[in-house]
Amino acid sequence: MHISWVGLDLGAGSVSRRSERYIMTVLPSCESIKDVDSVVVQVTAKDGDSTTANNLVTYSYAPTSEDFSLLSSGAFILKRRLNYNLVQKYNFLVTARDKWGLNDTATVTINVVDFDNLNPSFSYNVYQAFIQENQVGHFRTIEPAAIKAEDGDKGIMIPLTYSISAVSPGKYRSNFNIDSSSGVVSVTTALDREEMDVSVIDVSIKAAQTDDILKTAAALVTVSVEDVNDNLPEFDKPNYSVTLLENSPLDAVLFKPVVTDLDEGGFVGTLRIVPDSAPFSVGADGTVRVKNSTVLDRETTERFTFQIEAREANPPHNNVMVQVTVTLLDENDNSPVFTSNTYEGKVYANQTEGMSLVQVKAEDLDADKNGQIKYSIEFGNDDGYFSIDENSGNIALAKTIPLKENVLLEFPLFITARDGGTISRSSSARVNIRAPGDSKPQFLQKLYRGTVEEEQEPGVVILTVNFLALSAEHPPTLTVVTDPEKFTISNSGEFSTKVKLDYDEAPHNYTVTISISDGSHSDSAVVEVQVTDVNDNGPVFTSSSVTKSVPEDAELGSNVTVVPATDKDSSFNKEIRYSLRGGEGRFSVDAVSGMVSVAASLDRETKAKYELLVVAEDQGRPVRSASASLLIQVTDVNDHIPKFSESEYQAEVLETESTGSILLSVSASDPDEGANGRVTYSVFQQSPSSDTPVFELDSSSGTLRLLQPLDYSRVKEYRLVVQASDGGTPSLVGNGSVVLKVKDVNNNAPEFSKERYDVTVSENLAGGSSILSLEVTDRDEDLI
After folding, report:
1. Do the strands 288-290 and 342-346 form a parallel or antiparallel pair, or are they unpaired?
2. Using CA of residue 146, residue 151, residue 153, residue 155, what is the dihedral sign?
3. Listed residue (625, 620, 624) closest to 573, CA to CA
4. d(Cα 464, Cα 475) in Å, to the nearest integer?
5. CA-based angle 176:180:186, to the nearest 5?
6. What is the rounded distance in angstroms from the CA atom of residue 311 to the CA atom of residue 318?
7. What is the CATH architecture of 332-434?
8. Is 736 within 8 Å of 644 (Cβ atoms)?
9. Each residue of 722-754: pLDDT tens digit?
């Protein structure tokens, strides 16, 4: 503290003074003598002068009041009724003065006493209360404040008793109670919002004085019952049974279940298919669609069963499951298939009309009419020797054939099998009917062709060889001349396998010589056997796990990698189609090439890696598949500007702060990685500027230090623009603001405007009169 002194000379006459204090209590009702226009208090002053002219006293008071008046006799008169709640005490300064201006003062205090003339009142007429359903006790909150009533007579404050006067709707009266002393309303019986026919209940409450129950106040409490997530979501059916045409395309719609929830707002949540391997998906709108159309083959799988889970978005995330059964409806997507490519029949000399020669048989995997087969002779029956039963496929002799000795008559018939589909499908087979006229054993063909699937158990009949042998006394013997270890032939002409054949091991085709002999005569023929591929090999990835990286700013459609797979089978059994699992829709794969590419924008700071599953499926029946894991790591790109933790840093610094002192620290963050996210600090601009920097910012820590002394009288505030730069190429820079307020220090003494003051004062000068004005200054701030 700095103190300055100045000399002061005063000249004055003395005046004797006398002070008094008057205290009076007045009832606001103006009862008794305190009625309107009555004297409340008498003020009296004495003057020591001897003459009447000099000792005549007049009175005045301050402040003036509309409630009281002061007579010339010094009597205070009550001018109107008083209100205790507005004013409880009056203080007046009364001045007594003679004609020469000599005066004295006294204080008059008038206390107002309250009495019981007002009803109680609540703080608010309407209160809003909130409580969760199924809860008892006090409200969760009540607005605008806690329920409270007070006696209108503030000076008495008669105790109050609270009660509930009505509840609307009235059936909820028993659910509420009010504490008679505190006025706290509570719920005694829990309310279930879902069973209520209203969302708000009005509770009318009353407060009455304990000494006079007719003096009351009323208020309304509107109680809002808040919803609690206490109900499970419900599907509109206990289970779903739907039908779907086989071969339906991707995204074909099955149905849309309806999910409800008795809680407020209804069902808010997600639906999902369980298990995820089911060939169906459910969209955000709840529609169930086809996810994998390749497996929708009724002939392979007629029925799919899965579940749909409905899970609430709000805690506690209640969930329910419902079963769905999808039955595939048949589509006429299969043609009739004959059990053999060619059939053989013989007509001998003992022929009779109507005799059965051979029966053809075709199968159709479709159902109902789509699989019902009708047979007909397409051509080759120009002479009308043959007939066929359209249902059984039995070929009979319609009329006898004139046979010729030593002449082989051949009748090639072409039989059509047609299904009953709306758009029918058909296939054909050849029936060779021979009528021999020669007794020598001989093959009816020099070349036979047949096919057999690989990996079949030994004993599969590939074809039946047609031959002539009319001598019952000398039945022929049929033998396999080449590859007897792999094939065999019976004396009835059934050519079959002796071992399993593997397509994947060469050769795929066999040329087998067969012979027929009755001991005297013989003949030979060739059987060409083609081994066909069976989908017994699944796709195989060259690597079961692949890791690749892609920059976060990769353009849509950018290629990431190919995860190739191979299949040892042939034809369509080795054709591979690729698909992706996982990746949150950020990547896609070309179904044919297997090229994985970017399908949506990437952000390493949001997600730095994606674990995907590449699935390869062949086109055989049944479908075989394999999978490989693909880890895609998103590499950082310098796409974020460093950001200061505060938009503006502020600090106060004493002007006497020593150089080198730490004033504050700034901090900036950059979510980029490595050098892209490494931040360095610098001072870009200082305002006001100076020849040499006043402050220094540590480039690594962000610590701001004082380099030069401060002077409050010269600069009261500095503003700095600080920069945070990352280590990327090019570097990205973020700006921040620092405000430093220089604080004044009391290092200057106050100063009078003069070294000495001379003053003359009259002896009758009234107290409180101004005699001199002193002027003091201080170069420090706000210290005078």
Report:
1. unpaired
2. negative
3. 620
4. 17
5. 25
6. 6
7. Sandwich (2.60)
8. yes
9. 999 999 999 999 999 999 999 998 766 787 778
Q: Which two tokens stand for residue 551?
A: 């920059």
User: What is the layout of strands, in order, in the sheet containing 58-62?
Assistant: 20-26, 103-112, 89-97, 58-62
Closest CA to 296 of 242, 332, 249: 249
Distance separating alpha carbons of residues 513 and 89, to the nearest angstrom: 138
Q: In the CATH scheme, what is the code of domain 234-329? A: 2.60.40.60
Structure token pair of residue 481 = 């001349």
* Tens digit of each residue's pLDDT (9 = 90 or more) over 367-420: 999 999 999 999 999 999 999 999 999 999 999 988 876 677 899 999 999 999
Q: Is 242 helix (H, G, I), strand (E, B) or coil?
A: strand
CATH number of the domain located at residue range(s) 20-112 in this protein:
2.60.40.60
| Conformation bin of residue 768: beta by default, left when phi > 0, alpha when psi is -120 to 50 | left
3-state secondary structure of 394: strand
The gap from C-alpha 276 to its chain's centroid, in whole angstroms, comes to 20
Distance CA 410, CA 404 (A): 12
- 673 and 604 Cβ atoms separated by less than 8 Å: yes
Place of tokens 């059984």: 392
Residue length, the chain? 784
Q: What is the pTM of this model?
A: 0.41
Which residue in 241, 234, 321 sits closest to 275, CA to CA? 321
CA distance 564 to 718: 65
> What CATH superfamily classification does 439-532 receive?
Cadherins (2.60.40.60)
Is-contact 631 547, C-beta < 8 A?
Answer: yes
Tokens of 741: 């307020």
CATH 3.90.226.10 fits 540-635, yes or no: no
CATH code that applies to domain 643-743: 2.60.40.60
Query: Residues 6 or more apart from 448 whose CB is under 8 A from it?
Result: 463, 465, 495, 525, 526, 527, 528
